[in-house]
Amino acid sequence: MRPRLLRLLLVAALGASAAAATSAAQQAPPGSAASPASAKSQKKQSKPKREARVTAPREQPPRESKPKVFKGVCRVQKAKPFLKRESFVVKGQLQALPHQRAVKYRVEHYGRLDGVPFEKLNPKNAYAYAKSVRFLGLPIQVHEKVAPALSCVETRIRKTCNAKGRRYVPKAIGGFRQANTYRGGEVSNHLFGIAIDIDPERNPCCGCVDPWPNHRYCKKDVKKVEEKTELTACWIDAFERYGFYWLGRDTLEDTMHFEFLGDPERIIP
User: Fold this and answer.
1) What total number of domains does the chain contain?
2) How many whole angstroms separate alpha carbon 27 and alpha carbon 194?
3) Which residues lie closer than 8 Å to 81 by C-beta, 6 or more apart?
4) Cα(208)–Cα(97) distance, rounded to whole angstroms?
5) What is the pLDDT of residue 34?
6) What is the CATH number of the domain that holds 252?
7) Is 165 part of any domain?
8) What is the DSSP string of 69-92?
9) Nearest by Cα to 121 from 133, 105, 137
């Protein structure tokens, strides 16, 4: 019986020792030794996760808009009111801020002028954009942006201004200039290549400096300025259909003069 009793006592002692070890492990403070299995589990859980690699999107170079191809068709548009001379010359006096706004727009769209404000807004001189074209058979230089509009005016004239009282045959025309013809700080649209004069001797500027006021047409006692010019209403309408403005409507009564005051970026559809 003694060997058997000894075995029973040994088994009981081993069981008590295991229970005590388990209880000690459960009560052990943080940082104390743990079982191999527990340590492995903690190591597995504490392993830092790899952060997903974020790749910055590649910057795409800006796409250059393709220049529009002129196919003989233009948008119908009106002259912008703030570009008309009457908006910045009031009772013969140049209004500084409205005039600067008009000049700034022209420099941005057509090129800079030496000695004229806002030169830094455009790297190229306006005359660098000069284009030689023909208008009703006559040679002329204009800004390349308004050349399509002038072509559409010619097409319109050929189609609609042939009847009696509507027809007019030009003999001399002028476009781009490199010298200002205005006084008092005003900037001529001829310097930007967006103005055209037609037959000054037949279509005078009655409000300009001498000798123009003495022209026989300017001395006419008439109510309408259209009666002081040989240009027909059909011609005037053809120009103004495509963004040009007839300066005969201005206090200058400059009947020879048309200038493009529309949006040059909207000429070609």
Assistant:
1) 1
2) 95
3) 87
4) 23
5) 47
6) 3.30.1380
7) yes
8) PP-S----B---GGGSGGGTEETT
9) 105
**pLDDT reading at 42 higher than 70:** no
Radius of gyration of the chain (CA): 43
Helical segments of the chain, H only = 2-27, 36-46, 96-110, 147-160, 233-241
Q: Output 66-74 pairs: Cβ under 8 A, ≥24 positions apart.
A: 68/268, 68/269, 69/268, 70/148, 70/151, 70/268, 71/268, 72/151, 72/152, 72/155, 73/152, 73/268, 73/269, 74/148, 74/149, 74/151, 74/152, 74/242, 74/267, 74/268, 74/269
- Residue whose pair of structure tokens reads 């006021």 in the numeric block: 213
Domain presence at residue 254: yes
- For the whole model, what pTM was predicted? 0.76
Determine the structural domain holding residue 101 and report its residue range: 81-266
pLDDT the model gives residue 107: 98
- Give the separation between CA 251 and CA 140, rounded to whole angstroms: 27
Q: Is residue 27 a part of any domain in this protein?
A: no
From 8-22, 142-156, 169-183, the region with the lowest mean pLDDT: 8-22
Chain length of the chain: 269
Q: Specify if 188 maps to a domain.
A: yes
Environment class of 190 (CB within 10 Å of its CB; exposed 0-12, middle 13-18, buried 19+): buried
Q: What does the angle CA 199 – CA 203 – CA 209 come to, to the nearest 5 degrees?
A: 105
Cis peptide before 211 (omega within 30 of 0): yes
